[in-house]
Amino acid sequence: MTDTIVLKPVPESIKTARDAVSLVASVWGINDYIPRVVVSELVTNAVRHSAPDDHIVVRAYQMNGKRFIEVWDQADGMPRTQTPAETDECGRGLILLSFLVERWGVRPLNERGKVVYAELRP
Questions:
Q1: Which in 31, 95, 100, 113 has the greatest CB count within 10 A?
Q2: Domains in the chain and their CATH numbers?
């Protein structure tokens, strides 16, 4: 099963993505907490770095017994982990992701942008 939604780069899309992934998790028969946190972090980054006319694609799917969440955006920059100061309000999302998922990574898109993916733990 693959579930795909297309979103605008606006803050309201973060909740929409969380709700969609929650439904997919229920179909998969797993707790939705980790998938919701993962998609929230990835879509937040996509919203933050996208232009107003861009779109964001969220995919959740199973392949070869593994579960994946992908967020596609059209922003040029590639995500990287940071070392935020204690007082910084952002910059911890990818570090958090590293603790929550089996693995995550980035693939550039041919035209413009990238896909950030996360493989959920079994």
A1: 113
A2: 2-119 (3.30.565.10)
